[in-house]
Amino acid sequence: MAGEAMVNGLKYIFVGGKGGVGKTVIAAALAYELAVYNGKKTLLVSLNPVHSLSSLFEQELSGGKVKQVEGSPNLYSIEVEIDEIVERYKEKMSSRLREFFRWAEVPLDPGPFINIATTNPAFQEAAMFDRVMDIVVDESKKYDAIVFDTAAVANAIRLIGLSKLYGLWLNRMIKSRKEALETRYKLAVRKEKILEEIRNDPIIADLISLHEKFKITRGILTDPSQTGFFFVTLPQALPISVVKRFINMVKSFDIPIGGVFVNSVLTREEAERDGTGYLKTKLEEQERYLNIISREMGEYIRGYVRLAPREITGVEALRDVIEDLHTFRPG
Ligand SMILES: Nc1ncnc2c1ncn2[C@@H]1O[C@H](COP(=O)(O)OP(=O)(O)OP(=O)(O)O)[C@@H](O)[C@H]1O
Ligand SMILES: [Mg+2]
C-alpha cells in the first residue's frame, strides 16, 4: 500500500492493551508497514513473557537476539527473553548493592538483601525497563523506527512514570555519595589521594551513567514528536475500560498518546450471512460498544480492523490488517 504509515513520523511506538486483544498483530502490522511499504529500517520488539512473533511471521525469531525478518525487507525483530534479562539485571544490581554495603561500611552479609531486592515482583519490571532503556538510548541509533509490543502495558507506563522518581532517588544517592567523599577529603591528610579517589569513584560513575540513561529515556519517551503510545481495544466492555484507564495513566505521566485501534470488528455482511441470528445479536451489542468508543475516545481512534475468519498468521494476513487500518470503517 502506498501512502503514509499509520504512525508516520514517530520513531518510538508502543502498543498496549488488555490481554489477547491483538496487540502483537497490530504491532507487527505497524512495523511491517513502516519497514516494507515505507522503507524505514524498523525493529519490532516483543516484551511478552510468551512470544508469538515466530508464529506470526512463520519463521524462527526467538532466542533473544535481533533477527532480520526474512521476506520482509527492512524489518528486524527481537523477542526479549525475560529470564535472561532478569538474570543479567540481578548480577548488575548485586554488584551495586555489594559496593554500597562496602562503602557504607555495613558489617553485614549483603546476600539476603540482594535476595529480597531481586525477588521483589517489581524487579522483573525494572529489569524489563532497563532493557527498554538500552534499546531506546543505544540500539535505536541503528533504526528509523522501533515498535514495542508490550504485554504488561501498565507496568511499562508505570516504569516510564517512575523514571522521574528513580531520577530523584539517583540524584539523592549521587549527592550523598559526594558528601561522604567530601567529608573524607576534609579529614584527609593526603588530599591528592582522596581527590583521585573521587574522580575515579565507581559508585558515582555508575550512578551518573544510570541517571543519564533515565534522563535521556524520559526525554525521548515524553516527546510527542518521537514517541506515541497506542492502545488496542475490542468493541467490548472490559478492553474499553482497560484502555480508558491506561489513557488516564499515560496522560498523568506526560507520555504522548498515539491513538487507539479497534480490533476484531464484526461486519454487517458477516453477521447477515449467519442464519442462526447469533451474530446479529452480537452485532447489535458491538454497535453499543462502538458508540461508547467513539463517544469516549473518538479523538484518539486511528483505525479499525475487521474480525478475520481465522487467526492472523503470515504476512498476507498482516497486509490485510494494514489495509483495514487505512480503509475499513464500521457502520
Ligand atoms: N482481527 C482479527 N481477526 C481474527 N483474529 C485475530 C484478529 N486480531 C487478532 N486475532 C487473533 O487473536 C489472537 C490474539 O491476538 P494477539 O496475539 O495479537 O493478541 P495480544 O493482545 O498480543 O495477546 P497477548 O496479550 O496474549 O500478548 C491471535 O490468535 C490472533 O491471530
Ligand atoms: Mg501478544
Fold and architecture overview:
The chain is of the alpha/beta class. The chain has a single domain (12-83, 129-327), classed as P-loop containing nucleotide triphosphate hydrolases (Rossmann fold). Helices cover 56% and strands 13% of the residues. It has 12 helices and 8 strands. An 8-stranded mixed β-sheet has the order 3-4-2-5-1-6-7-8, with helices on both faces. Strand 3 (67-68) and strand 4 (75-79) form a beta hairpin. 33% of the residues are buried. The model has no long low-confidence stretch (mean pLDDT 88). The structure holds adenosine-5'-triphosphate (ATP) and magnesium ion (MG). Residues 19-25, 48, 52, 151, 263-264, 305, 307-308, 311-312 line the site of adenosine-5'-triphosphate. GO terms for molecular function: ATP binding; ATP hydrolysis activity. Residues 11-325 form the ArsA/GET3 Anion-transporting ATPase-like domain. Belongs to the arsA ATPase family.
